[in-house]
Amino acid sequence: GIQVEQSPPDLILQEGANSTLRCNFSDSVNNLQWFHQNPWGQLINLFYIPSGTKQNGRLSATTVATERYSLLYISSSQTTDSGVYFCAVNNGANSKLTFGKGITLSVRP
Amino acid sequence: DAGVTQSPTHLIKTRGQQVTLRCSPKSGHDTVSWYQQALGQGPQFIFQYYEEEERQRGNFPDRFSGHQFPNYSSELNVNALLLGDSALYLCASSFDRGGIFSYEQYFGPGTRLTVT
Question: What pLDDT does B1 receive?
Answer without folding.
Answer: 65
